[in-house]
Amino acid sequence: HYIRSFLSVTVAAGGTGKTAVTLAEAMAMATGRDLLGQETERQRVWVWNLEDPIEELHRRLAAICIHYNLSYSDYADYLFVNSGRDSQLILAQQVGNSAVLTPVVETVIDYIKEYNIDVIIVDPFVSSHRLSENDNTAMDLVVKAWGRIAEQAKCSVELVHHVRKAQQGQASSYGDARGASALTDAARHVRRLMRMNPDEARTAGIDEDQAFRYTREADSKDNLAPPSLDDSWRQMKSVDLPNGDNVGVVEAWAWPDAFSDVDVRDLGRVKNIVSEGEYREDVRAANWVGHAVAEALELDINEKGTRGQIKSVMRTWLANKEFKIVERIDPKSRKKRTFVEAIFNSQPEETL
């Protein structure tokens, strides 16, 4: 996501934890530590948070250090932090009817060069200018200024931006970034942070009221490489500070492996049970194939997360042609239904 000499953008709805994510990434790069499941070389990172006071940034960074057992010496001279409450960072503003750049552009370039900054993170982008977000020409001016900073200073520029509210019944994507499209059009890589939805929580065996703690990257725009099909999940953990405050810190989170306790012998038992009965594909059916899986694996199908695990396992087995979907008349309803049948290379065995 962070690419030297290029502009990158993170878009997310409010409360998604985008600041927590970028601060953890900043600390990972400044220390050269694998904090979020991604290897990184040590980089000099300059964080410009244009919303929070410096005290809040100190609290967040202290929580990261406590959670990951880091000391000041681990990031000294590699992490630079500024608050917009103390000094503004305005690259462009409206003068009469025209949008114009300010001398800050050259000042930022000179500072990055002087201190050998590798990455600059600006959170949020909207506070780095005084222009109309919906004016594409004006946005193009300030976005290209950030692009020039990345190119001339040979650093990675990360801009954090909000998304507009999605219409009812529609999911948001990076294309829903608030304001004109010039920002996302100019960026070399755009990622969208999304919260875990209730269906995903149920599948993962997580209480729905705790789903807000989990986020993933999705709908990425990547002009250098094909978009990844793998989601990057993170979990927000609560960290207690010595003064009694509680601060959220993100850490890497792996989706539960549906096959962690399943082997080929389990597959054989499921096949044998399925071959001896009539099992439907429809999860709502009383004779859903999941019941056969639960019986073979000795699972409680009513336990939270079990149905999601079973569906994940069956999707894999179907894709690997261990089972097949067939359509035929249901003898009970006299209607066409889809059933699941086991595929054997030989005759079913009583035990496997």
Describe the protein in words:
The protein has 352 residues and is of the alpha/beta class. It has helices spanning 18-31, 54-67, 72-75, 104-114, 136-152, 182-186, 198-204, 264-275, 289-297, 306-319; strands spanning 7-12, 45-49, 79-83, 92-95, 98-101, 119-123, 129-130, 156-162, 189-195, 214-222, 233-240, 246-252, 323-329, 336-342. The protein has a 9-stranded mixed β-sheet with strand order 3-2-6-8-1-9-10-11-12. The chain has a 3-stranded mixed β-sheet with strand order 5-4-7, with helices on one face. A hairpin with a 6-residue loop joins strand 13 (323-329) and strand 14.
The order of strands across the largest sheet is: 3-2-6-8-1-9-10-11-12
Strand content: 15-25%
Helix segment tally: 10
**Low-confidence segments:** 166-171, 225-229, 348-352
SSE string: EHEHHEEEHEEHEHEHEEEHHHEE
Helix content: 25-40%
What structural class is derived from the secondary structure elements?
A: alpha/beta
What is Rg? 26 Å
Can you tell me the overall shape?
elongated
Number of strands: 14
Major sheet size, sense and barrel closure: 9 strands, mixed
Rounded mean pLDDT is: 87
What distance separates the N and C termini? 47 Å
Structure summary:
With 352 residues, the protein is an alpha/beta fold. It has a nine-stranded mixed beta sheet with strand order 3-2-6-8-1-9-10-11-12.
Strands, helices and their partners?
Blueprint: E1 7-12, H1 18-31, E2 45-49, H2 54-67, H3 72-75, E3 79-83, E4 92-95, E5 98-101, H4 104-114, E6 119-123, E7 129-130, H5 136-152, E8 156-162, H6 182-186, E9 189-195, H7 198-204, E10 214-222, E11 233-240, E12 246-252, H8 264-275, H9 289-297, H10 306-319, E13 323-329, E14 336-342
Parallel strand pairs: 1-8, 1-9, 2-3, 2-6, 4-7, 6-8
Antiparallel strand pairs: 4-5, 9-10, 10-11, 11-12, 13-14
Helix pairs in contact: 4-5, 8-9
